[in-house]
Each structure stands twice: as structure tokens, then as C-alpha cells.
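pls design
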């Protein structure tokens, strides 16, 4: 890991624990193990570090989605990947994404950071709303809309279906955050949710 990568990693850990305002460039340098002045050889400010973390999260998220096997493309294109999907496959996709945001070494502290900072930092607030609320619900609403139109799901309001699917998952992230000893319980709760959701809306 390069010094620049180490600075980003340590900054993320510190921001997620103390908050953005509670961390100074000197704190980050100390955590990395370099002189306070040396950190400016890599980043001009704390804001620049924060912005790099946002870009890195976006990159890592797309890589994770691909690795987990989430159907790609627009909502219509992705819907084609769900037409014949089994409940077991849907369970695996939900589990992969859930564990990624719950315990990934980058995604988990990033989620905590923007959750804590959303009311103090406008950029963090916009990121939280975009990444964890608007984008997720908009994509899922469009996806479920296509599945409803194709007759895969029962006739329903797509926005409501998206809320029914996503809200419990987001709540479970909060409930089981930083509780590794309860991971099995968390996965069982997620599995039960997805199974119930499938029974409620699927025509299969």
C-alpha cells in the first residue's frame, strides 16, 4: 500500500469514528506515521481527502456489484436478468450486497462516515441521499415497474414495492452494524425478508 493509499485508509477509519470535523490533518498524519507537514505532499487539504474517498467508494461499489452478480445496465436491461431468477439466486444477491455494506473494510466505514456526517456536511449529506436513498429507490422502482409490466410481479405501485424491498434491508444494516457475532442472525433475518417479499409480489 502506497503512502497515499494509507492516508485514504486511515482517514476513512478516523472520519467514521470521530466525524469529519473531529479529525485534523495532523491526526491523519500521526495515524499514518508520517510528519504532519509530509501529508501535504499527497493531499492539499482534508476536503481533497474526503473527495477522493467519495470517488473511491463509487469505483469500489461498481466492482462489488459486478463481482456479486447483480444484473447490469438500465432498469429495463437489468429486469431481463430477473425475469427467470430463482428465489435462491435473489437471496444470494441480497446477501452479497448486504454483507458488502455491513462488513467490507472500505464500504462499511464509508457508510458510517456519511451517515454520521450527513447533517453537518452538505457533500456527505448529498452522498448519503444519492447513494443510499435516491439512486437505490429510483433504480428499484424502475426495475420493479418493468417486472410488473412483464407480468413477473403482481400489479402494484412500483415505488411502494421498492420501499417494501429496500427499507427493511437498510434497517437491518443499522441493527446489525458492528455486531459480527450476530452475522448469522442478520443473514437469517435478510433471508426471511427476501422470501416473504417474493411470496407477496411474485407471480411465480
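designed seq:
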Amino acid at each position: 500500500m502506497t503512502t497515499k493509499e494509507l492516508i485514504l485508509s486511515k482517514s476513512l477509519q478516523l472520519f467514521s469514528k470521530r466525524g469529519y470535523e473531529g479529525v485534523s490533518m495532523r491526526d491523519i498524519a500521526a495515524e499514518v506515521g508520517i510528519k504532519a507537514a509530509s501529508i501535504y505532499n499527497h493531499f492539499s487539504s482534508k476536503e481533497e481527502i474526503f473527495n477522493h474517498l467519495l470517488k473511491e467508494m463509487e469505483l469500489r461499489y461498481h466492482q462489488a456489484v459486478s463481482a456479486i452478480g447483480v444484473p447490469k445496465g438500465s432498469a429495463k436491461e437489468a429486469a431481463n436478468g430477473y425475469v427467470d431468477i430463482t428465489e435462491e439466486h435473489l437471496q444470494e444477491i441480497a446477501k452479497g450486497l448486504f454483507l458488502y455494506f455491513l462488513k467490507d473494510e472500505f464500504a462499511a466505514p464509508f457508510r458510517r462516515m456519511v451517515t454520521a456526517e450527513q447533517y453537518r456536511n452538505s457533500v456527505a449529506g448529498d452522498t448519503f441521499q444519492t447513494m443510499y436513498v435516491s439512486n437505490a429507490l429510483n433504480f428499484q422502482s424502475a426495475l420493479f415497474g418493468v417486472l410488473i409490466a412483464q407480468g413477473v410481479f403482481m400489479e402494484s405501485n412500483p415505488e411502494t414495492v421498492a420501499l417494501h424491498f429496500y427499507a427493511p434491508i437498510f434497517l437491518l444494516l443499522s441493527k446489525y452494524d458492528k455486531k459480527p457475532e450476530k452475522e448469522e442472525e442478520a443473514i437469517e433475518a435478510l433471508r426471511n425478508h427476501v422470501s416473504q417479499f417474493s411470496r407477496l409480489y411474485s407471480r411465480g
